[in-house]
Design goal:
Strand 10 (150-156) and strand 11 form a beta hairpin. The radius of gyration is 15 Å and the shape is globular. The chain has helices spanning 24-33, 49-56, 101-109, and strands spanning 2-4, 11-16, 38-41, 60-62, 76-81, 84-89, 114-116, 123-128, 131-136, 150-156, 162-168, 174-177, 182-185, 191-192, 199-202. By secondary structure, the protein is mainly β. It has an eight-stranded mixed sheet with strand order 1-5-6-7-9-8-15-14, with helices on one face. Strands 4-3-2-10-11-12-13 form a seven-stranded mixed sheet, covered by helices on one side. The N and C termini lie far apart (34 Å). The chain has three helices and 15 strands.
Length: 203
C-alpha cells in the first residue's frame, strides 16, 4: 500500500504508537497539535483505529502490531511523504527490542529514506547512513527511564525538507532534528546522545 502526499506543500505529521486502547493522552495531544495533515499509528491500536481516525479528523495510516489480534491491518506500508520514501511497521518482525540494526538494514536495502516503528515503547531518532529511523514511543505505557508518554511531529517545509520533534507528553519539551542541524529547545528533560553518534534517546 502506498500513499502519496503533495511535494512542495508544507505538512505536519503526527506519529504515534502503542496506544493499547488507552486514549486520554492521545486526545490531549490532538487538542494541542491539531490541525495535522496526517496521523501515522505504528501499531497496537487494538481495534480502535476507526475511533482514532474519527478523533484525528485527518487522513490516518495504521499498521498492525503484535497485539492487534485477528486484525486485517497490514504488517507494513510504504508511504511517499513529500520527497521521502517511508516504511512504516510495528517493528516486532525485525526484533527491535534487541536492537534496530535489522530494521535499519531492511529499510536501507529497500531504498527507504525513513523507517518508522513502535513496539519498544521507547522514543528514538537515529540517523544510520542514508536512513532515518524513528520510534515515537508510547502515549499510554512508556518504558524509557522517566516514563514520559511521547510522540513525534514530522514537519515538511515549503522546500520539502523534514524536521522531527520528539515531544514527551509531560513537560511540553521538544527536540528538533534535521539532517543539517540538531538543536534542543527547553532543558527540563534529559537527552542522551552517545559520543560519535547521531542518535537521540529521550529519557
Amino acid at each position: 500500500h502506498e500513499r502519496e502526499t503533495c511535494e512542495g506543500k508544507p505538512m505536519k505529521i503526527l506519529i504515534i504508537s502503542d496506544t493499547h486502547r488507552k486514549h486520554e493522552n492521545l486526545l490531549k495531544v490532538l487538542e494541542r497539535e491539531c490541525p495535522v495533515d496526517l496521523l501515522i499509528h505504528l501499531g497496537d491500536a487494538e481495534g480502535y483505529e476507526d475511533y482514532i481516525a474519527e478523533q484525528a479528523g485527518c487522513p490516518v495510516e495504521v499498521v498492525a502490531g503484535n497485539n492487534d489480534f485477528f486484525s486485517s491491518l497490514p504488517r507494513e506500508k510504504e508511504l511517499q511523504i513529500g520527497k521521502y520514501k517511508v516504511l512504516i511497521t510495528h517493528g516486532h518482525y525485525y526484533y527491535v527490542n534487541t536492537g534496530i540494526e535489522d530494521i535499519e538494514g531492511e529499510a536501507e536495502g529497500r531504498g527507504f529514506d525513513i523507517v518508522m516503528f513502535g513496539h519498544t515503547h521507547r522514543p528514538i531518532i537515529d540517523y544510520h547512513k542514508d536512513v532515518i529511523a524513528l520510534n515515537p514511543g508510547s502515549l499510554s505505557y512508556p518504558r524509557q527511564e522517566g516514563k514520559r508518554p511521547s510522540y513525534i511531529i514530522m514537519d515538511l517545509d515549503k522546500k520539502g525538507e523534514a524536521t522531527f520533534a520528539v515531544s514527551p507528553f509531560m513537560g511540553f519539551v521538544s527536540f528538533y532534528f534535521s539532517r543539517k542541524r540538531m538543536r534542543t529547545v527547553a532543558t527540563s528533560a534529559l537527552v542522551a546522545v552517545p559520543a560519535g553518534s547521531k542518535r537521540l534517546f529521550v529519557l
